[in-house]
Specification:
Immunoglobulin-like, mainly beta, 363 residues, six-stranded mixed β-sheet
């Protein structure tokens, strides 16, 4: 057996094949040969997988690959497919692998260079005071962070650290001048930029109001499956574009209307307690959009304010009218007192004149 394991015949070396493997997933290292008696896979000098006598021979397999490797079926091998499958890819699996295949007459060698990537699966973005923070973890290789914003902001400050498992954590902060409407985009990019870009967006917008209905949009991606949630202290809408399933709590069903074809949301029949900030989050495998929409205090539109003004004016006129009537009555009462009898005038401290009393005393 050892003779087979150590068998070396002058190899035929071809150009390297490059493969990118995704962290924690399976990865296939391609190799074909017509020499099928003995198959060895190596990384550096470490044996990764061996096959001869029509079966796997793993006594000499390096401990880092125990239980993680396999070849294809015997029928595939007989057809010349000697590719290696590695499960649960790790950062340590990066490197140059040698595929060695031989029979009793000749042998050949081929090389596969493995790169490992752990793209960002989610990015958090938050705004506190005048700082927008974007962060993610479990990324490999070391990522790049890029920002875009409206209104424009200062240069970001980013920090990157590497964990014990060799994956990276990144935090980036952007100082901003907060306004009533804004949008901040943070993108995390790994080496294969065309595929592995994750963008998080934070946006604040105003709602349009028409006939006491508030209308606004949540960003959606028509070409990608997405999930959407709308919340106001609690979640009031969930939508899954893949299944077209929509979930709205009973108490909100007559208040929330969602149009998945364009992401528009209509809120109606709201009371004063339901005014405030609504947060819509739309998420895909590569994007996360967080949109906050502020509704006016108490939900009163222009028409309502005009109505209140008209009502107040009518009430003021009515008060003035009542006041005038009361003033008239008081004035009439005052003039009536002047025509009282002499006795009444005396009670009020008024001396009767001779003209007002025909029964004046004679001397």
């Amino acid at each position: 057996m050892k003779l087979f394991f150590l068998l070396w015949i002058l190899p035929v070396t071809l150009g390297d094949t490059h493969v990118t493997c995704i962290y924690s997933e399976e990865c296939m290292l391609p190799c074909t040969s017509t020499n099928l008696g003995i198959i060895h896979w190596y990384k550096d000098k470490n044996p990764v997988h061996s096959y001869y006598n029509n079966q796997d021979q793993l006594d000499y397999q390096h401990k880092d690959y125990k239980g993680r490797t396999s070849l294809f079926s015997q029928s595939e091998i007989k057809n010349g497919n000697v590719s290696l499958l590695i499960r649960n890819i790790r950062v340590q699996d990066e490197g140059r692998y040698r595929c060695y295949a031989a029979d009793d007459k000749t042998n050949d060698e081929k090389y596969v260079v493995v790169a490992v990537e752990a793209p960002a699966k989610s990015v958090d973005i938050t705004l506190k005071d005048d700082t927008v923070t974007c962060n993610t973890s479990g990324v490999y290789p070391e990522p790049n962070v890029s920002w875009s914003s409206a209104p424009p902001a200062k240069e970001p400050l980013s920090t990157v650290s590497q964990r014990e498992d060799n994956l990276f954590t990144v935090t980036s902060q952007l100082k901003v001048d907060v306004s009533d409407t804004y949008i901040y985009n943070c993108s995390i990019t790994t080496k294969n930029a065309k595929k592995n870009i994750y963008t998080a967006s934070l946006k604040q917008q105003a709602a349009s109001e028409l006939n006491n209905e508030f209308i606004f949009k949540c960003p959606i991606t028509k070409d990608l499956d997405y999930t959407l949630t709308l919340s106001f202290s609690t979640t009031i809408l969930r939508y899954d574009s893949k299944t077209s399933m929509k979930d709205i709590p009973m108490q909100w069903r007559d208040k929330v209307t969602f149009h998945p074809e364009n992401g528009s949301i209509i809120l109606s029949h709201l009371n004063q307690e339901q005014m405030g900030t609504y947060t819509c989050e739309s998420t895909t495998a590569q994007y996360r959009y967080i949109t906050q929409t502020k509704l006016p205090p108490r939900g009163l539109g222009t028409g309502a304010y005009i109505g209140i003004g008209v009502t107040a004016a009518i009430l003021l006129v009515a008060i003035c009218f009542v006041v005038k009537i009361l003033q008239k009555r008081f004035c009439s009462a005052d003039s009536g007192e002047k025509s009282h009898s002499p006795e009444a005038q005396q009670l009020n401290g008024i001396s009767p004149s001779p003209e007002t009393n025909g029964d004046a005393l004679t001397p």
